[in-house]
Amino acid sequence: MSRPVLGIICCTRQVGVEPAQAVMNRYVTAAMRHADCAALLVPALPGLMTAEEVIDRLDGVLLTGSPSNVQPMLYGEAHAGDPPFDPGRDAMMAALVQAVLARGKPLFGICRGLQEINVALGGNLTREVRDHHAPDDVGFLEMFDHRHDVALTPGGLLARAHGRMALHVNSVHYQGIARLGDGLAVEAVAPDGMVEAVSARIGAAPVLAVQWHPEWSADTDGDAATFFHILGRALRGQHPETTP
Fold it and tell me: Distance between CA atoms of 71 and 76, rounded to whole angstroms?
């Protein structure tokens, strides 16, 4: 039997002197391996294609992390915000969210993806984020090793899937949720009260997003792999706690 197909959004990145559509391998390989799915990359080029052209070929969508931030004007803020920004991704993200939810398909997010889902559903973001990222002078590997605890919501999807009430997660973000988007439920919070994961059932569409980076260690950390196990089940229309 053919595997479900996951659409993974691209970022606009600079490669040498040229702009490129790119997704870091770790998002794609973690999803394909641990959700047991095929994947197609969705370019952040809204002037050349629409979400409607591709959504019926996908069984769900993953919004990845990115170095770029969501533009503040998208959640009603007048301040300039902190670059870099990726307007093409912002536009394609908004269209993908609308299209996937309208069809009742799974929508998952990691880091920026969580922030995007929150904004797309009417929430906003804050830049008042402390202790959620490593010091600026550390190396790349050390940045992703920066960790803190999160408390899982009793009875929530993540608490049920993990079978316990807390996780120790990596934390690499400079923005976070301020006001929760419409229909979203809190799945996890950091010790300072920052929302670290959300879920929803919007129509027939299951939604799950986390602020941490499970793709970073999914091959070696069972807790990280669980996010993708849930994704794989959702792509197949299964309950989150069923056996993959």
Answer: 10
